Amino acid sequence: MHRFVTVVVALAATACASSQKSEPTVKSQPAPEVRGESDSNHATCVAMFVRQRECTDLYIPALVDLSISVKRYGDIEDTREELIAQALKEWEVDSTDTAIEGTCRTALDISDSNFIEQQVPVIEACLAASDCQAFIDCIIPATRVWWEHRAQDKQQQK
């Protein structure tokens, strides 16, 4: 079955919309330790994943919806609810401190530094969002740009 929880590090220049909707249940864990690393891009990446984890109830369904809308995994026969259930199971592993640390290191290693530098302010703006809905409204459109950027990179490598 296809993975729906993917590396989401570099984000698009999308304005963050604020929302007055009520907060979903927050999944709380202490933030992963950056272990003295001075790389602010890494710290921003970790903070982004921590916020995604805190907003799981909104983040995962929005991520699945994005995956479906862009046909990221081709034609999918599973229902939206089945895909969300699958993604939530994967997210239990992918959102641990250890996984976040590894994902951020890998994503920053494989990504174009110019693209990352351009997107860090966008990520920071998303992180400043007042609630989970505002954060999701900011991060999901930006995720789409990350996927498009990675797809272009893969095309150029062929």
Task: Describe the 3D structure.
- The protein is mainly alpha-helical and 158 residues long.
- The chain has one domain.
- It is built from six helices and no strands.
- Helix 5 runs antiparallel to helix 6.
- It is globular.
Structural class: mainly alpha
Q: Count the E strands.
A: 0
User: How many DSSP H or I helices?
Assistant: 6
* H-E order: HHHHHH
- How would you characterize the largest beta sheet? none
Rounded to the nearest angstrom, the radius of gyration is 15 Å
The quaternary state of the protein chains shown equals single chain
Kindly give the count of domains.
1
> Which shape, going by the Cα principal axes?
globular
Helix proportion: 55-70%
Query: How large a portion of the residues is in β-strands, by DSSP E?
Result: under 5%
Span from first to last CA? 25 Å
Mean pLDDT across every amino acid position: 78
Q: Any low-confidence stretches, pLDDT <50, length ≥5?
A: 1-26, 31-38
Question: Which features characterize this protein?
Answer:
158 residues; mainly alpha; 63% helix; disordered N terminus
